[in-house]
Amino acid sequence: MVWYKPWARSKRAAQLVSAEDLIATTRAQRTGGKVHVTNETAMRHSAVWACLRLRADLVSTMPVDVYRKVGGINVEVPKPPVLVSPGGTQVGLMEWLYSSQVDLDRAGNAFGLITERSGVIGPDGRGLPARIDLLALGDVTVRSRGAQITKVIVGGTEYEPWEIWHEKQYTIAGLPLGLSPVAYAAWTLEEALTAQQFARDWFAGGAVPMAELKNTAKTITPDQARIAKDAFRASVSDGDLFVHGMDWEYKPIQAVASQSSFIEARQFAMTDIARFFGCPADLIDAAVSGSSITYASMTQRNLQFLIMNLGPAVARREGAFSRGLVSGPRFVKLNSDALLRMDPEARARTIASKITSRTLTPDEGRALDDLPPLTDADYAQFDRLFGKTPAVSLTAATGAPPS
C-alpha cells in the first residue's frame, strides 16, 4: 500500500544561494528562514498566478461541443447536463473548467465527487456522471496498489475510485497520479518567494532602509546602544525628526533590493517559472530584457501557443470527457477557434477566398459573422449597385451535365 499526497509536500532545497550573500544572511535574521513552498504559497508569486490564470482563462472559455460521426462527418449532438452545469445550479461549466484547470496545472491532478448520475449507462456499467462537485486538493489523499487507485480519502471519509472524478496530467508510467509542477519547481519558487519576502521585509518599516547609527565621540555600553536605537526607531517610525548632537553619525546602508544582481535574479525566476508552467514568458509580461521574438501576426503567435503549450492539455481534457461523460460513439471537443481569431481584415479575406474557391457558400460565410442569409431583395440591391452577374450553369462550370 502506498499513500500519495504530493501536492501537500514542498520539495525543499538543501541550500539556496541568493543573488547576494547579504540577502541570505539578512533573511535568516529578519524573517526566520526560508519560505515553505506549497500550492497556496506558490500562487503568491505573480508569474505562477499569471501562468495559471492565462491557461485556465483560455481553456474555460472554449466552447464545449459533443459530436458523433455520421458517414465520416462530425455531426453535433446535444450536450448532457454535466457538460452544461457540471456543479449543479451553483457552478456552471466555465467556473468548473477554470477551477479544475488550475488544479491540473499546479498539481497535475483534479478531483471531484460524483454526487449524481444519469440514466445513461457508461462503459463501467454504471450511470454516467450528471454532477461532479470539485474537491480541494488539500482534502484528498489517495491509496493505491501499484498504478491502480484503490481508495480515495476525502476529509477522513473513504470513497471507491468509481465514486470520484479524477483527471491527471504530467504522468509517468507506474504512478496513478500526475506530477505536480509546483513540487518540481519548488527550488526556483523557494528562491523567488524568498527574494520577494526579503524585498517586502526590507521596505516594510517605511522609506528608511537599514542603517548604521554610530557614536563618534565615545564608546557606548549595550544599554546606551539600546536606548539610542529605541529613541531613533520611535522618531523615524512615524516620519518625525531625530534630534541628536555632533557625536552621532547616521549612515544608510545601500539597499540590496535595488542592486542589479538582485533585480536580475527576480527577472530570471519569472522566466524559469514560466517554463515549468508551460507559458511563454512574453505572454505573462516576463520576457527577459534584450530578448525579442517577432511574429507576422497575433494569430500566428496564438497558434504557436496553442500547438506547443496549451494544445496537449486541451486534448487530454477532451479525452477524459469523451471516456467518462458521454456514451457510445459520441466524443467531446473543446473549440479553440476563439483563440485563433483573426483580425477583421484577414478574416474577411479568408471567408472571401473560401467562397471564391466554392468551399463555403455566401450564406455560410454570413453565418460566421452572425448575419442572416441573403434575401432576394439583397441580391436585387447588389445587382443595382454592381450590375447583374449572369448565372453560371452547372454544365459550363464543370463541363458535364448535371446528374
Present the secondary structure layout.
Blueprint (H helix, E strand, L loop, with lengths): L1 E3 L16 H10 L8 H4 L3 H15 L3 E7 L2 E5 L15 H15 L1 E13 L5 E8 L5 E6 L2 E7 L2 E3 L4 E5 L12 H4 L1 H18 L7 E5 L6 H15 L11 E5 L7 H17 L21 H27 L6 E4 L9 H13 L5 H7 L7 H11 L7 H5 L5
Antiparallel strand pairs: 1-6, 2-3, 2-12, 4-5, 4-9, 6-7, 7-8, 10-11
Amount of helix: 25-40%
Computed over alpha carbons, the radius of gyration is 31 Å
Q: Mean of residue pLDDT?
A: 77
- Which sequence of SSEs, written as H and E, runs from N to C? EHHHEEHEEEEEEHHEHEHHEHHHH
SS summary, helix count: 13
Number of strands: 12
What general outline do the C-alpha atoms trace? flat
Number of domains: 3
Please give a handful of descriptors for the protein shown.
18% strand; 40% helix; 403 residues; 4-stranded antiparallel beta sheet; alpha+beta
Structure overview:
With 403 residues, the protein is α+β, with helices and mostly antiparallel strands. It is 40% helix and 18% strand. The chain folds into three domains: 1-205 and 255-341, no CATH class; 211-252; 342-389, no CATH class. A hairpin with a 5-residue loop joins β4 and β5 (127-134). The longest helix has 27 residues, at 298-324. The model is unreliable at 1-33 (pLDDT under 50).
